[in-house]
Write a structure and sequence with these properties.
Strand order of the largest sheet: 2-1-3-12-11-4-5-10-8-9
Oligomer: single chain
Helix content: 40-55%
Bound molecules: 1,4-dihydronicotinamide adenine dinucleotide, magnesium ion
Largest sheet: 10 strands, mixed
Distance between the termini: 22 Å
Strand content: 15-25%
CATH architecture of the largest domain: 3-Layer(aba) Sandwich
Order of helices and strands: EHEHHEHEEEEHEHEHEHEEHHH
Number of helices: 11
Length: 329
């Protein structure tokens, strides 16, 4: 029995969560769900977007499924990443048939450092303008690198690439690059290499197949993961994981999409694929592959899919299709 906290949140977050939980009913595992509140709607009634009870419920669970928040997203999801020390942001870049992916057979992951770098919010105004501080520590660089290598071993991948700009950011990215290669020594069975971030941005478009696992700092990872999302089709398809030492939080990359909310038109694939990442995190590899295959078949057939994928089906109809496939696998 897995204890899972569930935060549907706002807008389509609620609809894609219902869809994903519907599919999880057909997974051969037992889940004990604890629902928790967060987001704009909760703030409207209570005055706060993220109550301490929600943090407690998430802390007390083995994994959290998160739908989406609206305008309060920064106070909800960004705050949870910090409070729960979810230092890894993991984003698969995987092409699926029946989608608008620019390449076929793409399959790599971006492991982004989630707690420091350019996003610590240390900005100050000066007489001339403003200054932002970029903090890179050995501790955070080593743990994100170690996560990348361990993830590569666990998922049978062959190479790990550090992405940085150490030729210009000599001190900060010097620490990052040195930490990466120090950890690499513990994994002689894997290939390790490094690229500059600007070259990487180009290679995504010219030869993305060279990547397997990418480990990078916060800002570079944020930009590259959106570029990666662009490579493999729309926001309705892109899952993500936020992982700490004892907890994972799994969420679609998209937000509450107000234009779709309440209409049953949101694509549930990103949320369902986030649940697949959760199964992988829980080491339920077999169930993860089965659920992923049911989603992939549904996308490839293109018959019972939502509007953004060229279909006419509702969020729940697509979920039911995936569930039926999973039951018949
Ligand atoms: P969004 O991701 O909600 O929507 C962007 C575009 O993608 C829209 O055209 C939307 O229709 C489409 N889209 C997104 N998910 C889709 C799905 N599952 N199926 C079909 N189409 C989909 O981002 P936007 O519009 O910038 O923000 C809307 C609200 O969401 C804002 O209040 C923002 O703060 C919040 N937000 C929350 C996030 C989170 O909770 N992690 C992340 C991003 C935005
Ligand atoms: Mg982003």
């Amino acid at each position: 029995m897995y204890k899972i906290s569930v935060i549907p949140g706002d807008g389509i977050g609620k609809e894609v969560m219902e869809a994903a939980l519907h599919v999880l009913e057909a997974v051969d595992l037992d889940f004990d769900y604890e629902f928790a509140e967060a987001g704009d709607e909760y703030e409207a009634v209570s005055g706060i977007p993220l109550p301490p009870e929600t943090i407690d419920i998430v802390k007390d669970s083995q994994s959290c499924l998160f739908g989406a928040a609206g305008e309060s997203a920064a106070d909800v999801i960004v705050k949870m990443r910090q409070e729960l020390d979810l230092y890894v942001n993991l984003r698969p870049v995987k092409s699926y048939p029946g989608t608008k992916s620019l390449f076929e057979n793409l399959d790599f992951v971006i492991v982004r450092e989630n707690t420091e770098g350019m996003y610590i919010g240390l900005e100050e105004e000066t007489d001339e303008g403003a200054i932002a501080k970029r903090v890179i520590t050995r501790k955070a660089s080593e743990r994100i690198s170690r996560f990348g290598f361990e993830y590569a071993v666990k998922t049978g991948r062959k190479s790990v690439t550090a992405v940085h700009k150490a030729n210009v950011l000599k001190k900060t990215d010097g620490v990052f690059k040195d930490s990466f290669y120090k950890v690499a020594e513990e994994f002689p069975q894997l290939e390790s290499n490094d690229f500059y971030v600007d070259a990487t941005a180009m290679y995504f478009l010219t030869k993305p197949e060279i990547f397997d696992v990418i480990v990078t700092t916060n800002l570079f990872g944020d930009i590259l993961s959106d570029e990666g999302a662009g490579l493999v089709g729309g926001l309705g398809l892109i899952p993500s994981a936020n992982i700490g030492d004892n907890l994972g939080l799994f969420e679609p990359v998209h937000g509450s999409a107000p234009s779709h909310a309440g209409k049953g038109t949101a694509n549930p694939a990103a949320m369902m694929l986030s649940a697949v990442l959760m199964l992988d995190y829980l080491d339920e590899t077999e169930e993860a592959r089965k659920m992923e295959n049911a989603i992939v078949e549904t996308l490839a057939e293109g018959k019972v899919v939502t509007q953004d994928l060229g279909g006419k089906s509702s969020t729940m109809a697509m979920a039911t299709e995936v569930k039926n496939k999973l039951e018949n696998l």
